[in-house]
Amino acid sequence: MSLPHTRIGHGYDLHRLEPNHSPGGGRPFVLGGVGLEHPMGPVSHSDGDAVYHAVVDAVFGALGLPDIGQKFPDNDPTNEGADSARFVMAARDSLKRGGYGILNLDVTVICERPKLAPIKARMIENIARLLEIDPLRVNLKGKTHEGVDAIGEGRAVEVHALVLIERM
Fold this sequence. Notes:
By secondary structure, the protein is an alpha+beta fold. It has one domain: CATH 3.30.1330.50. Helices cover 29% and strands 31% of the residues. The protein has 5 helices and 7 strands; from the N terminus they run E-E-E-E-H-H-H-E-H-E-H-E. It has helices at residues 50-63, 68-71, 85-98, 120-131, 149-152; strands at residues 6-19, 29-31, 34-36, 40-42, 100-110, 138-143, 156-167. A 5-stranded mixed β-sheet has the order 4-1-7-5-6. Helix 4 links the parallel strand 5 and strand 6 (138-143). The chain is globular.
């Protein structure tokens, strides 16, 4: 049985944020390929780019593939500190192999700080470049958690991504 002509995928990622340069602390804070000046960073095996991770899981989900953790496990030393752009390019290559292209991608980043408006366009450009699609096919919005729970207290970042793909 072949895959349907149009498919949708949802990706999700959450990273705990810890002070940079402390024992067991966070890495430099990167979202959508943009480095951020911030006293906290993600605790992660790779670079912890939650935007890229959610996008990859959305694409893999749309294709019916295993998730990012299965494809790039945290016990594989080659993924230690890895630039998550590599994972996005792997998702793009999977799309091409499957004969699919992206119709649109919608990403929601939830964090209290930093504010994303100043870097939103750069994040969209980075995602579109890696996926080899027109930036008009990518939407990204930043939300806060209104001071509620770990995200609202600035101790975590959460990202949701939805992608609609079509057989080319």
